[in-house]
Amino acid sequence: xxxxxxxxxxxxxxxxxxxxxxxxxxxxxxxxxxxxxxxxxxxxxxxxxxxxxxxxxxxxxxxxxxxxxxxxxxxxxxxxxxxxxxxxxxxxxxxxxxxxxxxxxxxxxxxxxxxxxxxxxxxxxxxxxxxxxxxxxxxxxxxxxxxxxxxxxxxxxxxxxxxxxxxxxxxxxxxxxxxxxxxxxxxxxxxxxxxxxxxxxxxxxxxxxxxxxxxxxxxxxxxxxxxxxxxxxxxxxxxxxxxxxxxxxxxxxxxxxxxxxxxxxxxxxxxxxxxxxxxxxxxxxxxxxxxxxxxxxxxxxxxxxxxxxxxxxxxxxxxxxxxxxxxxxxxxxxxxxxxxxxxxxxxxxxxxxxxxxxxxxxxxxxxxxxxxxxxxxxxxxxxxxxxxxxxxxxxxxxxxxxxxxxxxxxxxxxxxxxxxxxxxxxxxxxxxxxxxxxxxxxxxxxxxxxxxxxxxxxxxxxxxxxxxxx
Length: 470
Fold this sequence. Notes:
470 residues, mainly alpha
C-alpha cells in the first residue's frame, strides 16, 4: 500500500491528509480550471498528487535499497484481508468498465468513446485512494478523537452556513452562495420554495449528507459510553442537523432520516433489553423529531404534500419518465450494458441502479452493489460476534460505533439511490468513502481473538472492554 511509503509513511501525516480530504469534501466547492474542462476538487488534487509522489519515491527507494518491502509487510500484516477485498472489488469494477465499453462500442455500435468516458476510471481510482488511505491509518484514541473533532467542526460550520443561507443576512445568497453552488444557487433566490444547499450543488445531496451525519450522532447517542448520563449535547446537535435537513426540503432525505431512526431505535431497544434509560432516549428522540416536524415552515409542508400526490407531482412524473427510458435501453443489452457512452446517452436517469445497469449491465450492477454490501455484511457479522461473545447492554467501543453507523445508514443510502445516486457525486462520495474505509479499518483494528473470551460475568467482561478500548 503506497500510503505506507514515502511522503505518507508517518501515521500522523496520513491522518492529517485524511482529515484535510474529509473537510474539503464537506465544506469546499470545486475549482474551475477552464471552461472546456470539468471542475476539480481540492481533495482530488491532494489524493492524486500525494499518491503520485509516493509512487515516485517508492520507485526511487526500490532502486537504492530494498528494506521498504519488509516495512510495508509489517504495516499491512493486520490489514491483509481488508486490502485484498478492496482490491478485488475495484478490480471487478474496472474489469466491468473495460468489458462493457468494448462491448458497447464494438459489438453494439453504441457510438463515440471519449475523454468523459475515460474519466469514469478516475472516479473509481479516487474512491480506491480514499478507502485505502483510511484503512492505512492506525486509529488509536488520540487519532480517533482528532478526526471526530475535525468532523464535528465541519458539521458546525455547515449548520451555521445553512442557517445563513436560510436567513440570508447581508444578502449572503447573492454574493457568497454562487461561489459554492454555481449550478443550483437559484434555488435559494427564486426557488418555490427556497431550499438550503449548504456547500453542495444540489439540496438533495446536502439532505442525504445530513442523514450520514445523523447516523454517527445517533449511534453515539444510543450506543456510546455516556457514563450513565443523558447525552444532552448529542441530543441538541441531532436536533440542529434534523432541522438543517428540513431546510433542504429533501423528501428522500426526510424518508432516509425516518428509516435511520427506526432502525436505530429498534436496535437500541433490543440491544439494551428494554432498559428504562434507552426507552427515555427513544421517547426523547421521537418527541424532538415531532416538535421539529410540526413547527416546520409552510414551504416545507407544501413541497411534502406536492411530492405525495403522485398523479400531479412534477418531480415524480419526471423521475418515472427517465426510469422508463433507461429501462428500455437496459433490456436491449442487459448483460454487459452499453458502456459509459456519455456523449450519446443522457446521464440524467434519477436512479443510480438504472444508470449503472444501463452502462455496465446486470453483471456490473452486481459489482456495484458489492462495493456497498461487502463492508455491510462483514460489519454485521463482526457486531453479531461481539454481541454473542460479550452479551447485550455493553456500550460500543470506537470501532463498533463506526461499523454500526454504516450499518444503520446504508438502507437510507440505497433508498436515496432510487431517486438520485451517491456513487457519481464526487463530493458526497468523498465523505461516504471515508465511512466505508472506517468500516474496513475497524474490522482490521478490532481483536478477533477477543470474541472467543468466555462469558464469566458482567464485571469481567467490562474490564475486558476497557482493556480493548485502551
